[in-house]
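Bug report (template v2)

What were you trying to do?
Predict the complex of my protein with zinc ion.

What happened?
Run completed; filing so the output is reviewed.

Input:
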Amino acid sequence: MSSNKRHVVDPRAEPFARLLAAPVSHREELGSKGPPRWCRFCERFAPEVTFKKEAHVLPSALGNRSLFSLEECDECNWRGSKLETDLAGFLSLARVTSMVPPGRGGPIKHKPWSGIDRWMEAMPNDRRLTVRVGAGGDDDGPVRVTLHRDGMRLSTLVPSYRPANVARALARMLLFVVPREELPALHHILQWVRGADLWRYPRYHVARMPGTLPAAGLTLHRPGPGMPSYCVNLYFGHVALSCFLPDASFEGPMLEFPASEPVDTYEYPADFVVRSEWVSVDVVPGGFVRASDEEIAVAAYYRWLEGGRRDGTALDDWLWSQEEVTRRKLVAGQAEFRRRSAEAPQEDG
Ligand SMILES: [Zn+2]
């Protein structure tokens, strides 16, 4: 693998493994119990190391209750759980909007700052998402809702995370799955995942999917046609995350994605911590109120009149009116819903 050559990635390249971590499913265990029981990360054996904890191939925070590995010792599991925390932080918004119940079940909460009345909470069992923006305007605070004609945009701050650990968490998933005899070729990746500071600029790629996947999925590639290196793809909620693993020189190949694949590349110095990143998602609920162009144009016209008929305010007036008309219709719709609910015959208890 040459470091300076450009590689065009073929999204249709065939993976060597596809895994789906269903929130509730039968248990699948990868690897062997031995004896002797063996850890594929530190390459030590029982009883020098213990194997009491469950080793999740995909994080339990992403809903994995079905896919486990028998070949990770408790010490490496503890180290790995730190990487999963960074990955789950990066995917905070996808966790709330995907409605995939976390491993322990129950609601999924996202509260970026403590002590203020702004948070999100998803109840996967009744498919309900509550977004609390508290008092005051939408323009401050770490949870924001913007209404538009087709639904709403939810934006939030995600907790601080280390991008290098997001990449490590992805690589760790591949190391769980590759056959044992393939691990020597990935020895440099093993060392890096275990904490050695070998990759100066860890890099991964993020694409938004058109729909929401109701479970965490994984596809794994070996180097081959259209695939410059080992590659991990994690699919979760509306996000597809890919990491192309570097060779032993840790000079990753330059990648080109087809124009039809909108991909954001994340590349940071190895020790970088992202402290305040905004992420957004568009939610388009069924039956959401819709504002027509005519309604918006009328509202924008009156706003322009009220604003003193100045030039150059057309776009602002239009955007403001789009949100205002949508909000007004939503409030009217809620009042109508409450009125009908009150009129409906009550059942006697
Ligand atoms: Zn170990």
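What did the reviewer find?
Helices lie at 74-90, 92-98, 163-177, 187-193, 293-306, 314-343. The chain has six helices and 15 strands.
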